[in-house]
Specification:
The complex is a heterodimer of chains A (132) and B (362). Chain A contains four helices and nine strands, in the order βββαβββββαβαα. By secondary structure, chain A is of the alpha+beta class. Chain B has a six-stranded mixed beta sheet, sandwiched between helices. In chain B, strands 14-17-16-15-18-19 form a six-stranded antiparallel β-barrel. The chains are: A alpha+beta (132), B alpha+beta (362).
Chain lengths: 132, 362
């Protein structure tokens, strides 16, 4: 059973979003996603300063098996990517909601409240519908 | 739902993730694909390869049939138990399949062909076997396990016990023999030593459990793919198919054009290709920086010209990405690969990349 922490928001494409105290958000992929991908061997995160639209592919996670896009859960500007993942992509497998975060975003005005993000309970239902 | 091997329920019990492979429900991994890969390079792992198609060929003219069907020369098989790797070609020299054929007795051979090509292979073999009166029997009653790794033979000997163990340990590379209703071959698809064992389906589950209890890791098709690619072995459908011939697939060494009177199917087409300049070649690539090479990525040559990756992956042993690629013929030692629009540098090498656990890439 995949972990779905109650204090995070989610997308149907298996990203999670954590609101930080400074008004930015942290983004990663869910436990379900890392498990489905298997051992990660390469992660490409966006550079600081890049403007992203909601739903835009902005990072790539590659397992031994396949490459997958990670989509921006909301519009904003990238404030930084997780540099540690360059040398240690497996951290996304071992700690997807913590040390394995992918990027931080400064949401565009109104983007956080306006984004169609899922609660933990709603995301849990998405997983159940997918048979996970 | 796909076809299931005798081990299907055990795979589920062991927590395997199942995928469709050539119409079969097969385990792609149990816990960690990289962990399973290392188990085979460093100790021993067991794979369910029962989806592969075992075909017994019997009849007085079975050698004549194989001389016609195979690009490699079965007259090399002089001692019962010897195995031969070969391509089976169409009239244009394209590869219908690659297979291993075992010489059992003068009128009895066994071939193991790919699961994904089973139907067309059987049609092709039967079409040529019928006029020669050779009987073609698919052995769906057998399961097949591959036990691979530096400790594989010792572990298999513990599984077999007694006189069977000594007989199996005495097998030379690329030879096989029957043992109490099992067929044990010192062959594989990983670049490590080990056995492929064919057995009555009912024996498969107890054999697997016993191997697990001896410390042999359950390994899925995911690890099998990274192991075979490190070992520089082609995968049918990726690295060659009916539109490519053996010379442009790194398999020229398996084509026996001599003696000249050999008249196998595809020979005329290959003879013409042999006389002309080879247009394309299959090479190994090692990515210089970070990233992962994947099949169908574009390969750009320094002097112009383009090729394509046929198989690519992350190599757990080398901790970098490797690939097989078909590129225009000619000496080239560096190329660029288009990965999502970025051109990344890769070195051209001669496969294999890894053999018996050791890197062959300087």
């Amino acid at each position: 059973m995949s972990k779905v922490p109650a204090d995070l928001k989610y997308t149907k494409s298996h990203e999670w979003v954590r609101a930080l105290a400074d008004g930015t958000v942290e983004v990663g992929i869910t436990d379900h996603a890392q498990h489905a991908l298997g051992d990660l061997v390469f992660v490409e995160v966006p550079e600081a300063g890049r403007a992203v639209k909601a739903g835009e592919p902005c990072a790539v996670v590659e397992s031994v098996k396949a490459a997958s896009d990670v989509y921006a859960p909301l519009a904003g500007e990238v404030t930084g990517g997780n540099g540690r993942l360059g040398g240690e992509p497996q951290v996304v497998n071992s700690d997807p909601y913590g040390e394995g975060w992918l990027m931080r975003l400064k949401p565009a005005a109104g983007a956080l409240s306006g984004a169609a993000l899922l609660t933990a309970a709603q995301y849990q239902r998405v997983l159940e519908a997918e048979g996970g | 739902m796909g076809r299931r091997t005798a081990l299907f329920k055990l795979h589920q019990e062991l927590g395997a993730r199942m995928v469709d492979f050539g119409g079969w429900d097969m385990p792609v991994q149990y816990s960690s694909q990289i962990g399973e890969h290392h188990a085979v390079r460093r100790a021993a792992g067991v794979f369910d390869v029962s989806h592969m198609c075992i075909v017994d060929l019997k009849g007085a003219k079975v050698r004549a049939l194989l001389e016609q069907l195979l690009a490699n020369d079965v007259t090399k098989l002089k001692t019962p138990g010897r195995a031969l790797y070969s391509c089976m070609l169409n009239e244009r020299g394209g590869v219908i399949d690659d297979l291993i054929v075992y010489y059992l007795a003068e009128s009895s051979f066994r071939a193991v062909v790919n699961a994904s090509t089973r139907d067309k292979d059987l049609l092709w073999i039967r079409r040529h076997a019928e006029p020669l009166g050779v009987e073609v029997a698919e052995r769906t009653d057998l399961a097949m396990l591959a036990i691979q790794g530096p400790e594989a033979r010792a572990k298999a000997a513990q599984l077999l016990e007694g006189p069977g163990a000594a007989a199996a340990l005495a097998l030379g590379a690329f030879t096989a023999r029957g043992l109490d209703g099992w067929f044990v071959a010192r062959t594989g698809y990983t670049g490590e030593d080990g056995f492929e064992m064919m057995m009555p389906a009912a024996d498969a589950v107890p054999a697997w459990r016993r191997l697990n209890s001896l410390g042999v890791a359950s390994c899925g098709l995911g690890a099998r793919d990274t192991l075979r690619l490190e070992a520089g072995m082609n995968l049918y459908g990726n690295d060659m198919d009916e539109t490519t011939h053996p010379f442009e697939s790194g398999l020229g060494w398996t084509v026996a054009l001599e003696p000249r009177e050999r008249a196998f199917i595809g020979r005329e087409a290959l003879g013409a290709i042999g006389r002309a300049r080879l247009a394309r070649q299959l090479v190994g690539l090692v990515l210089e920086g970070r990233g992962v090479l994947r099949s169908h990525q574009r390969v750009l040559l320094p002097g112009g010209g383009e090729g394509e990756i046929t198989s690519g992956t992350f190599s757990p042993t080398l901790e970098r990405s490797i690939a097989l690629a078909r590129i225009p013929a000619g000496g080239v030692d560096a190329v660029q690969v288009d990965i999502r629009g970025k051109l990344l540098a890769a070195r051209v090498v001669k496969p294999p990349f890894v053999r018996f656990g050791k890197s062959l890439i300087g």
